[in-house]
Design brief:
homodimer, Aspartate Aminotransferase, domain 2, four-stranded antiparallel sheet, Arc Repressor Mutant, subunit A, alpha/beta, 3 domains, about 475 residues, Aspartate Aminotransferase, domain 1
């Protein structure tokens, strides 16, 4: 014990002894001398060691507990907290809720934070028919408990959809989910245990990182380049850590909008095989591709079964269905079914049956094409306004999805910019939402899928004006 | 180090040295000398200490890792696993799935394992009208993303329902859930961290214990008496541990069917206050009460806000809705909303709106009364058959719910009995499903809500015949 606890206590110092001691222990923890979950020495021993009263030690430990640097277990002592608290941000989703929730009158605001298409685009009539048919056909049976994997005829339809993107699989590998977020949550339950390492893109989607953190994962961020993760850094990290999986989006990544090059997709699969890990590919916007090149999800190239593919139908169909799917390696399917049970038993059988009917009667393509057309018009409108008004900012050209990831000019803080825009009734998502540490202050994301052309024009003009005004101040201050 | 690692290695012994060492360390772990997450000494130090080759230590550690007694972290060493593996059963739900899944032809079987009522009882026509009205009124808007707490007009309706059972609350304390199981899952996310203690009834519902275990909880089981937990034992345990919460069902507990006496409800609340902990009250069958006494959920007596009340509508309405509710103390509501987001974003807005319409138009009482009447008829039928055929077994008289918890005669194993019954095409749930350790071999549960009177009669007769045959064997062997 003596070796480690070389903390200088100074009785003359105006900082109380317990506080000095606590500060010293905090330094030992941050510097790595006291690893996670290691036990702090008993009160009595520490008191002897430092020649102080037991109460001083008790107070120091209490102070550390308040700071969440340590935790105590009744009867067994005081232990170092597993993750330094500053590495566990509150679920980032939460900022979202708090910042953009109650205070602003959403009706008047120009809201660039939503990633749905307008609900006028939803195939409501077709679903109304589907609901009627299902109720007519199955009556109360439509509302019974379901097979945890999902309604088999629906899984057959989903296989067909997947095949249209080159993903060949069969019903027994497809799990129906109550939305993609549930997929992330369930996979985390199955694969992530306290202290496990998970790789994510930097920046990444808060819904996923929030779920991983909630399982006690340590997140390692791999920087994104224009065409996917930096593979050199990824491999360096793979040599250092054994991640449970790598979480990524191959197309129109949230938030950056980047898509992976074929080369990087192949490299990623090769590295997963070489370092014996999995990849979680989340796909929300694949269907919203505005170019002519083929869409090849990572899963379509996955011959070694390294990819867990999670697909949302909230964007291409409608969020209120709460339906998604996962394609799973056989190895983990049993465990996923068990986790699905403790998560929500099963996804609504009624909605599953209606979706099956809808897909069988209508197919995907017509509706998807309409959604894609609509998204691409909004994309073009947004780009043309961005060129007109946001000359000072930089942004990629995703050619898909419903968002633009914008790097603000140097000296302009994203949080400050978003606040100024809020005053002008324009809601924008700050980049910090997508940063595990919450530190990114140079990016914002604007999502345009749910806005009229007029609102896009007015919103971007206001952004441009605000940027100009802020930049003038920067210039003057320099 | 020397103090602890007093393991005698014997080179003459035919057990290899690494194995002897591993066995020694396992004993130290089981005896509590090496606490969870404590670090084992570095290879080199251990080798010096025991005067053996490093390879011996490496092999010992590997052996322990295979046995899941320890885990290793690249670069930081080998650590004692937090929970002895034998205390982490596979999710119990799973036994269920495996035992009663594919092999049996469910159509011919008499299935005493389902707790739903027959779907002919579901209010399908009323919901069909509700779906139509909602789509007519809101069109695609019915399928937009929702407020994470739930559709406010629905929460208003739910408050009215709660008030009919004496639970006074307001919309801002009611969280809409995608079923009660999701409530358990989300509350676990918010309140349970790795190694935390949770109290459960013994026996308890596997869906809940599975969710707690999945968060790394240590479960402490408090035995049930006829009128609720043994309060003396509960208080003894509360002196020893600081549980995050106590999980219980006040009415028609799963699996035993017992209901808490008023005295025990008050005592439970008093203890929660005294020892500063929470209670999770799950309520699935409150509405299925066949007696005349008032139903008073624990939450209705909860003046100090110690109770998190979780209610399923799967039984009283229909499982396929996937809707439930929680009444939450203010303190944790923000955290619950964040966890809800990373769990499934929100519950289907379409279904929420339909349920709101249904409740507003139809109220609860008429349908609930019909379900209750039906359940009580089945209950009486089951009891009369049990008296006729199961004279040798013992069971309580829950006077509510849709199940009977049966203690088999001494010497008859529940697993063996269930297997014998399966051969006779009768599906019964063995008590081990509801036992954390999986050891209970003297109880079975039969659920009768979904069976015709004929099937109840035939099923219980077969049970009686089988019991008789098995008991004759026991007599002979004694």
């Amino acid at each position: 014990m003596e070796e480690i606890f070389q903390i200088q206590l100074n009785k003359e110092n105006e900082m109380p002894l317990y506080h000095q001691l606590a500060e010293g222990i905090m330094t030992l923890i941050s510097d790595g001398y006291l690893p996670a979950n290691s036990k702090l020495p008993p009160i009595r021993k520490m008191a002897q060691h430092f020649g102080v009263n037991s109460v001083t030690i008790v107070n120091a430990y209490k102070y550390l507990e308040q700071k969440q640097m340590v935790y105590s277990r009744v009867g067994s002592g005081t232990f170092v907290s597993p993750l330094p608290v500053e590495h566990i941000p509150e679920p980032v989703a939460n900022h979202n809720i708090r910042s953009f929730g109650g205070e602003i009158s959403m009706e008047n605001a120009i809201n660039f934070s939503g990633t749905s298409l307008p609900h006028e685009m939803f195939p409501v009539d077709a679903f109304k028919k589907a609901f009627d048919e299902v109720l007519e056909r199955e009556k109360g049976g439509a509302f019974s408990y379901m097979d945890g994997m999902g309604y088999e005829p629906l899984r057959e339809q989903l296989c067909r959809y997947l095949e249209s993107y080159g993903i060949k699989t069969s019903v027994e590998n497809v799990q129906v989910l109550s939305g993609a977020q549930q997929g992330i949550d369930i996979i985390s339950k199955v694969m992530v245990h306290y202290g496990d390492v998970v790789f994510v893109e930097k920046p990444t989607f808060y819904g996923a990182s929030g779920a991983f953190l909630s399982r006690g994962a340590k997140l390692v961020e791999v920087p994104l380049e224009r065409d996917g993760m930096d593979m050199t850094i990824l491999e360096d990290y793979l040599k250092l850590y054994q991640p449970k999986f790598i979480y990524m989006m191959a197309y129109f990544q949230a938030p950056t909008g980047i898509s992976y090059s074929m080369e990087k997709k192949r490299k990623l699969l090769e590295l997963a095989e070489k370092y014996d890990t999995y990849i979680i590919e989340e796909d929300n916007f694949c269907d919203f591709h505005y170019g002519k090149e083929d869409i090849v999800p990572l899963k379509a190239l996955d011959f070694k079964n390294r990819v867990i593919y999670i697909k949302s139908f909230s964007k291409i169909l409608m969020p209120g269905l709460r339906i998604g799917l996962a394609v799973l390696p056989k190895k983990i399917h049993q465990a996923v079914m068990e986790a699905k049970y403790t998560t929500d038993i099963s996804t609504s059988g009624f909605i599953q049956r209606a979706l099956e009917y809808y897909l069988r009667e209508n197919g995907w393509e017509e509706h998807a094409a309409a959604m894609r057309r609509y998204g691409s018009e909004k994309y073009r409108k947004t780009l043309s306004c961005a060129r007109k008004y946001l000359g000072a900012a930089k942004y990629g050209l995703p050619n898909g999805g419903v968002s633009l990831w914008i790097r603000l000019p140097d000296g302009i803080g994203a949080e400050a910019f978003c606040s100024r825009m809020l005053e002008k009734n324009v809601i924008i998502t700050p980049g910090s939402q997508f940063d595990i540490s919450g530190e990114d202050d140079s990016h914002v994301r604007i999502s345009f899928g749910n806005l009229s052309d007029d609102k896009i024009e007015v919103g971007l003009k206001r952004m441009g004006d605000t940027l100009k005004a802020m930049m003038e101040k920067v210039d003057i201050s320099q």
